[in-house]
Structure formats: C-alpha cells, structure tokens
Design a protein that fits this description.
HSP9_HSP12
Length: about 80
C-alpha cells in the first residue's frame, strides 16, 4: 500500500503494463503528470517518514530519496530556521 498522497502501486503497474501505442493522448499526459507528482512526493518526504512498503515501491520504481532530510528541512536550514 502506498503512503497518503502518493501514486498507488497498482496505478503505476497498470500504466507500465499498457503499451504506449494503446494509450490516448490524455492517458500519456496523465501518466506523465502522475509520475512527476509522485517523484516530487518521494523527494519531499524523508525516508525516515516513509512506510516500509513505500520505501520498497520507491526502490523498484527508481523514485528513491537518498537522503533522510526533506527538502523543507533543507530550506529551513538554508534560512537559519532549523534547530539541530
């Protein structure tokens, strides 16, 4: 099961299985948008806050976040707002 706000694993599998030649323009656009949104979700959420199944799903879909700090935490650091 995917984490809240992330693309479900069955949706990812369905999009990957159906040949591009059988997809409508709308499906192509939707797949691309969902992929970008899911990738952003993967980057924004630290690995320490992901469920085990989401971490595994990200590994298989190459949607990996190799750091433990979120982009929001990094932005706070840059602005001097984060306490360590």
């Amino acid at each position: 099961m995917s984490d809240l706000g992330r693309q479900s694993f069955t949706d990812k599998a369905s999009a990957a299985i159906k040949p591009d030649s059988q997809k409508s323009t709308t499906e192509h656009f939707g797949d691309k948008m969902k992929g970008h949104t899911d990738s952003a979700g993967s980057t924004m959420q630290p690995n320490s806050q992901k469920s085990t199944s989401q971490q595994m799903g990200d590994t298989f879909s190459t949607n990996q976040n190799h750091n433990d700090r979120s982009m929001m935490d990094k932005a706070k650091d840059a602005l001097g707002m984060e306490k360590h």
